Amino acid sequence: MHTTLPRRFYADPDFYRSELERFYFNRWICAGRADQLPNSGDYFTRSLADESIIVTRDSAGAIHALFNVCRHRGTRLCEQAEGRFVERIQCPYHAWTYDLSGRLLAAPHMAAGFNKEDYPLHRAGCDVWDGHIFIHLRRSVLDAREDSACGSSEREGASEARGGGAPRALSDGPSASARDSLEPLRGAHAPSNSRRGKERWGPARCKK
Length: 208
Description:
Number of helices: 3
Order of helices and strands: HHEEEEEEEEEEH
Largest sheet: 4 strands, antiparallel
Distance between the termini: 57 Å
Protein backbone atom coordinates (compact mmCIF):
# COMPACT_ATOMS: atom_id res chain seq x y z
CA MET A 1 0.00 0.00 0.00
CA HIS A 2 1.40 3.37 -1.01
CA THR A 3 1.52 6.13 1.59
CA THR A 4 2.45 9.80 1.46
CA LEU A 5 6.00 10.93 2.17
CA PRO A 6 6.96 11.38 5.83
CA ARG A 7 6.25 14.78 7.35
CA ARG A 8 9.93 15.78 7.41
CA PHE A 9 9.97 15.94 3.61
CA TYR A 10 7.55 18.86 3.84
CA ALA A 11 8.38 20.55 7.14
CA ASP A 12 11.98 19.79 8.17
CA PRO A 13 14.15 22.92 7.64
CA ASP A 14 17.29 20.79 7.31
CA PHE A 15 15.71 18.77 4.52
CA TYR A 16 14.64 22.01 2.84
CA ARG A 17 18.22 23.32 3.00
CA SER A 18 19.56 20.09 1.50
CA GLU A 19 17.08 20.44 -1.37
CA LEU A 20 18.22 24.02 -1.96
CA GLU A 21 21.82 22.82 -2.05
CA ARG A 22 21.00 20.04 -4.48
CA PHE A 23 18.66 21.82 -6.85
CA TYR A 24 19.70 25.49 -6.70
CA PHE A 25 23.21 26.00 -5.35
CA ASN A 26 25.06 23.26 -7.22
CA ARG A 27 23.88 23.57 -10.80
CA TRP A 28 23.37 26.00 -13.67
CA ILE A 29 19.84 27.42 -13.97
CA CYS A 30 18.41 29.04 -17.08
CA ALA A 31 17.38 32.60 -16.18
CA GLY A 32 16.21 33.89 -19.56
CA ARG A 33 17.30 34.84 -23.06
CA ALA A 34 20.10 37.20 -24.06
CA ASP A 35 17.72 38.96 -26.46
CA GLN A 36 15.69 40.09 -23.43
CA LEU A 37 18.57 42.52 -22.80
CA PRO A 38 19.09 44.21 -26.17
CA ASN A 39 20.59 47.45 -24.81
CA SER A 40 23.07 48.58 -22.19
CA GLY A 41 21.31 48.99 -18.84
CA ASP A 42 18.46 46.62 -19.65
CA TYR A 43 17.85 44.20 -16.79
CA PHE A 44 15.53 41.64 -15.32
CA THR A 45 15.48 40.08 -11.86
CA ARG A 46 15.08 36.44 -10.90
CA SER A 47 14.26 34.87 -7.53
CA LEU A 48 16.11 31.59 -6.96
CA ALA A 49 15.79 29.79 -3.65
CA ASP A 50 16.32 32.51 -1.02
CA GLU A 51 18.17 34.84 -3.38
CA SER A 52 17.29 37.65 -5.79
CA ILE A 53 19.54 38.14 -8.82
CA ILE A 54 19.84 41.11 -11.18
CA VAL A 55 20.75 40.11 -14.74
CA THR A 56 21.89 43.14 -16.75
CA ARG A 57 23.94 44.12 -19.79
CA ASP A 58 26.79 46.64 -19.47
CA SER A 59 28.00 49.26 -21.95
CA ALA A 60 30.49 46.81 -23.48
CA GLY A 61 27.69 44.34 -24.23
CA ALA A 62 28.61 41.85 -21.51
CA ILE A 63 25.89 40.32 -19.34
CA HIS A 64 26.32 40.14 -15.57
CA ALA A 65 24.41 38.29 -12.85
CA LEU A 66 24.59 40.31 -9.62
CA PHE A 67 23.13 39.57 -6.21
CA ASN A 68 20.33 42.10 -5.65
CA VAL A 69 21.65 43.32 -2.30
CA CYS A 70 23.75 46.36 -1.46
CA ARG A 71 27.14 45.67 0.13
CA HIS A 72 26.60 48.47 2.65
CA ARG A 73 23.62 47.59 4.84
CA GLY A 74 21.98 44.70 2.99
CA THR A 75 19.23 46.71 1.28
CA ARG A 76 17.41 45.24 -1.70
CA LEU A 77 18.62 47.30 -4.66
CA CYS A 78 15.82 46.73 -7.13
CA GLU A 79 12.23 45.59 -6.63
CA GLN A 80 11.03 45.78 -10.24
CA ALA A 81 10.93 42.58 -12.29
CA GLU A 82 12.48 44.28 -15.33
CA GLY A 83 13.45 47.68 -16.65
CA ARG A 84 16.47 49.75 -17.56
CA PHE A 85 19.22 51.24 -15.43
CA VAL A 86 20.52 54.65 -16.44
CA GLU A 87 24.21 53.68 -16.58
CA ARG A 88 24.38 52.89 -12.86
CA ILE A 89 22.71 50.96 -10.04
CA GLN A 90 22.09 53.05 -6.92
CA CYS A 91 21.01 51.88 -3.48
CA PRO A 92 18.12 53.95 -2.04
CA TYR A 93 19.35 53.69 1.56
CA HIS A 94 22.72 55.51 1.59
CA ALA A 95 23.16 56.03 -2.16
CA TRP A 96 25.98 53.55 -2.70
CA THR A 97 26.36 53.52 -6.47
CA TYR A 98 27.63 50.71 -8.70
CA ASP A 99 28.35 50.40 -12.40
CA LEU A 100 26.58 47.77 -14.48
CA SER A 101 29.31 45.20 -13.82
CA GLY A 102 28.83 45.60 -10.05
CA ARG A 103 31.92 47.75 -9.35
CA LEU A 104 31.39 50.26 -6.53
CA LEU A 105 31.70 53.83 -7.85
CA ALA A 106 30.54 55.95 -4.92
CA ALA A 107 30.08 55.39 -1.18
CA PRO A 108 29.05 58.64 0.54
CA HIS A 109 30.13 59.44 4.11
CA MET A 110 32.65 56.61 4.45
CA ALA A 111 35.75 57.19 6.54
CA ALA A 112 39.09 58.20 5.07
CA GLY A 113 40.99 55.20 3.80
CA PHE A 114 37.85 53.32 2.72
CA ASN A 115 38.65 51.36 -0.44
CA LYS A 116 35.76 51.10 -2.90
CA GLU A 117 37.52 48.29 -4.75
CA ASP A 118 36.90 46.01 -1.76
CA TYR A 119 33.10 46.25 -1.97
CA PRO A 120 31.73 45.37 -5.42
CA LEU A 121 28.35 43.69 -5.67
CA HIS A 122 28.56 39.94 -5.21
CA ARG A 123 28.39 38.13 -8.54
CA ALA A 124 26.72 34.88 -9.44
CA GLY A 125 28.18 32.59 -12.08
CA CYS A 126 26.98 33.61 -15.53
CA ASP A 127 27.31 32.10 -19.00
CA VAL A 128 25.42 32.15 -22.30
CA TRP A 129 24.72 29.06 -24.38
CA ASP A 130 22.77 29.18 -27.62
CA GLY A 131 21.26 32.53 -26.61
CA HIS A 132 20.14 31.30 -23.18
CA ILE A 133 21.50 32.97 -20.03
CA PHE A 134 22.50 30.50 -17.31
CA ILE A 135 23.34 31.54 -13.78
CA HIS A 136 24.91 29.65 -10.89
CA LEU A 137 24.46 30.70 -7.26
CA ARG A 138 28.00 29.85 -6.28
CA ARG A 139 30.61 32.47 -7.01
CA SER A 140 32.38 31.39 -10.13
CA VAL A 141 35.72 31.32 -11.81
CA LEU A 142 34.68 30.22 -15.27
CA ASP A 143 38.15 29.98 -16.73
CA ALA A 144 41.60 31.42 -16.14
CA ARG A 145 41.20 33.32 -19.41
CA GLU A 146 37.67 34.57 -18.80
CA ASP A 147 36.07 36.86 -16.23
CA SER A 148 32.62 36.32 -14.73
CA ALA A 149 30.82 38.45 -17.32
CA CYS A 150 29.03 36.85 -20.23
CA GLY A 151 26.96 37.71 -23.22
CA SER A 152 29.19 39.01 -26.02
CA SER A 153 28.81 37.39 -29.41
CA GLU A 154 32.36 36.07 -29.04
CA ARG A 155 31.51 34.36 -25.74
CA GLU A 156 28.28 32.93 -27.14
CA GLY A 157 30.17 31.51 -30.08
CA ALA A 158 32.76 30.03 -27.75
CA SER A 159 30.03 28.35 -25.73
CA GLU A 160 28.57 26.76 -28.83
CA ALA A 161 32.03 25.70 -29.98
CA ARG A 162 32.43 23.67 -26.81
CA GLY A 163 30.13 21.12 -28.38
CA GLY A 164 26.72 22.19 -27.13
CA GLY A 165 25.15 21.02 -23.91
CA ALA A 166 25.08 22.96 -20.66
CA PRO A 167 27.75 25.52 -19.74
CA ARG A 168 30.97 24.16 -18.30
CA ALA A 169 31.06 23.24 -14.62
CA LEU A 170 32.19 25.81 -12.10
CA SER A 171 35.08 25.39 -9.75
CA ASP A 172 34.18 24.97 -6.10
CA GLY A 173 34.43 28.57 -4.96
CA PRO A 174 33.01 30.17 -1.82
CA SER A 175 29.24 30.33 -1.74
CA ALA A 176 27.70 33.63 -2.68
CA SER A 177 24.35 32.81 -1.07
CA ALA A 178 22.88 33.98 2.20
CA ARG A 179 24.01 30.67 3.69
CA ASP A 180 27.21 32.46 4.65
CA SER A 181 25.43 33.29 7.93
CA LEU A 182 27.15 36.66 8.17
CA GLU A 183 25.30 39.28 10.14
CA PRO A 184 25.18 42.94 9.00
CA LEU A 185 27.85 45.02 10.69
CA ARG A 186 26.70 47.47 13.31
CA GLY A 187 26.77 51.20 12.70
CA ALA A 188 24.91 53.37 10.23
CA HIS A 189 27.82 53.50 7.79
CA ALA A 190 29.56 50.18 8.28
CA PRO A 191 29.87 48.18 5.05
CA SER A 192 28.48 44.68 5.19
CA ASN A 193 29.43 41.42 3.51
CA SER A 194 25.99 40.05 4.32
CA ARG A 195 22.91 39.86 2.17
CA ARG A 196 20.62 39.32 5.15
CA GLY A 197 18.23 42.08 6.10
CA LYS A 198 17.42 42.87 2.48
CA GLU A 199 13.77 43.23 3.48
CA ARG A 200 14.70 45.07 6.68
CA TRP A 201 14.95 48.61 5.43
CA GLY A 202 11.72 48.77 3.46
CA PRO A 203 11.18 48.80 -0.31
CA ALA A 204 14.03 49.91 -2.51
CA ARG A 205 13.74 51.45 -5.94
CA CYS A 206 16.01 51.06 -8.91
CA LYS A 207 16.59 53.73 -11.49
CA LYS A 208 14.41 53.32 -14.54
